[in-house]
């Protein structure tokens, strides 16, 4: 018996991944819910699972953890700056980012895109980043991509 050959394709944007799924070039895809929401609601895509730690309000889908895999993956964004900023410059940039994160415009974008607000700053962000890096390294070691 031969096993079907598995191929992983990577697309630089969700729109290209969506086109590949809808065009039957691939069997399944992974992206943020917001990028596929309209097709899921229209019934042209079937949502198999969410990688969130818990079910998300208003989305009828199990989590990957519910399916028996201890996996939680969240797609997050960050703002970075070149090294060498003074403490005063860091404080000013941080204040601007916090103002943006709390703005009505950003809150509307979160809602429109179907994104969860997980804004973190300072030590809370550094702690979460360290946890995410460690978890990613463990997964990459488990699957043999790094030693």
Helix content: 40-55%
**What overall form do the CA principal axes indicate?**
globular
* Biggest beta sheet attributes: none
Order of helices and strands: HHHHH
Number of strands: 0
Helix vs. strand class: mainly alpha
Tally of separate domains: 2
What is the beta-strand fraction?
A: under 5%
**What's the pLDDT, averaged over the residues?**
86
Written description of the protein model:
The protein is mainly alpha-helical and about 150 residues long. It folds into 2 domains: about 1-70, no CATH class; about 85-140, no CATH class. About 45% of the residues lie in helices and about 0% in strands. It is built from 5 helices and no strands. It has helices at about 15-20, 35-40, 85-100, 105-115, 120-140. The longest helix is centred in the C-terminal third of the chain and has 21 residues, at about 120-140. It is globular. The model has no long low-confidence stretch (mean pLDDT about 85).
List the helices and strands and how they pair.
Elements: H1 14-22, H2 33-42, H3 87-102, H4 104-113, H5 122-142
List keywords for this structure.
single chain, 147 residues, mainly alpha, 2 domains, 5 helices, 45% helix, 0% strand, globular
């Amino acid at each position: 018996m031969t096993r079907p050959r598995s191929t992983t394709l990577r697309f630089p944007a969700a729109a290209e991944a969506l086109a590949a799924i809808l065009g039957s070039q691939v069997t399944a895809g992974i992206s943020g819910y917001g990028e596929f929401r309209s097709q899921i609601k229209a019934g042209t895509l079937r949502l198999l699972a969410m990688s969130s730690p818990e079910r998300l309000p208003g989305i009828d889908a199990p989590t990957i953890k519910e399916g028996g895999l201890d996996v939680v993956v969240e797609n997050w964004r960050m703002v970075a700056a070149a090294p060498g900023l003074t403490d005063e410059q860091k404080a000013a940039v941080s204040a601007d980012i916090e103002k943006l994160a709390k703005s009505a415009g950003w809150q509307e974008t979160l809602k429109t895109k179907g994104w969860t607000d997980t804004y973190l700053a300072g030590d809370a962000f550094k702690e979460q980043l360290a946890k995410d890096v460690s978890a990613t390294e463990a997964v990459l070691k488990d699957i043999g991509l790094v030693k």
